[in-house]
Amino acid sequence: MNSLRIFLLFALFSISLSHEPFNSHLLPRPLILEYPQESSEEIRLECTSWRFGVEANNLGPWKTIPVACAEYVKDYMTGRAYEIDLQRVANEAAIYARSVELSADGNDVWVFDVDETLLSNLPYYAEHGYGLEVFDEMEFAKWVEKSTAPAVGSSLKLYEVVQSLGFKTFLLTGRSENQRSVTVENLINAGFQNWDKLILRGSNDHGKQATVYKSEKRSEMVKEGYRIVGNSGDQWSDLLGSEMSLRSFKLPNPMYYIP
C-alpha cells in the first residue's frame, strides 16, 4: 500500500512539473473484472437437458423445478411443444391399442391415471409457478373441490379409441376416496364417460408411495382375472412396480415428481 502511495505521488508530481497539459489517462486506471454471464441459450439448453432427465427417469427425487428453469417450464407447458408431445404419446398408444387382439372374455384392461393424464391441472399450476413452489396438499385439495380441471384433449381421444375397441377402462388415481364425488363430476364434465372402475386411495392407502399403492391395485386387478394390456400416466410411479402392463405410455410432466 505504501509503495502504491509513493507511486501516485510521484506520478502527480511529475505531471505538475511538466509543461504539457494535464491528462487524466496518465493516472493508474482501476482494475475492472468482468465475469461472463450464462447466456439465455445456455440456460435453455441446460433446462432442456434437465427436462429430458425428468422424462427419462434419470433424476433423483426432486420437490421443485430449478429456479433458473421457471420461464422455460412455463413456456413449455403453455406452448405448442407440450401439446405436440402429448399428441405423440396418444398417437403411439392408439396405434398399439388397435394392434392388440382382445380376448373374448372381456378382461383386457387399459389403466389410466387421472391428474395430468386425463385431467389437466394447468390452471392450478399457473397460479403456483408451474412447479416452482413446493406442493401444498391443502391448496391442491381446494382446487380439486372445484371440479373444473379441463380434459387433456389428446388423452380424451385415446380414451374414446380404447373404449371403442372393447378394452375395459380402469382409472387409477392417487386422489383420496373422499374426493370421489368431485372427481366423478369433473371427469364427466370434461367428457369422460362409462369407465369400468375408478380406484382412489382408501384409508389404508394413505402414506404409501404411489409406486407401492398403484402396484398393489394392479395386483388386485390381476388376481381378479384381468389382463393389464395398456397403461397411461404422467409419472413413472403410475407405470413402474409390480404387475406392469404389456405396454406403458408416459405423458410429459416437468412440473412435479411423485415417487
UniProtKB/TrEMBL annotation:
Record field: transmembrane: none
Signal peptide (residue range): 1-18
Record keywords, A-Z: Glycoprotein, Signal, Storage protein
One annotated GO molecular function: nutrient reservoir activity
A Pfam family it matches: Acid_phosphat_B
Keyword Secreted carried by entry: no
Superkingdom to which the source organism belongs: Eukaryota
Keyword DNA-binding (UniProt): no
InterPro entries cross-referenced by the UniProt entry: Acid_phosphat_B-like, Acid_phosphatase_pln, APS1/VSP, HAD-like_sf, HAD_sf
Family stated for the protein in its record: Belongs to the APS1/VSP family.
Primary role: May function as somatic storage protein during early seedling development.
Stored PANTHER family: ACID PHOSPHATASE-LIKE PROTEIN (PTHR31284:SF7)
Protein name: Acid phosphatase 1
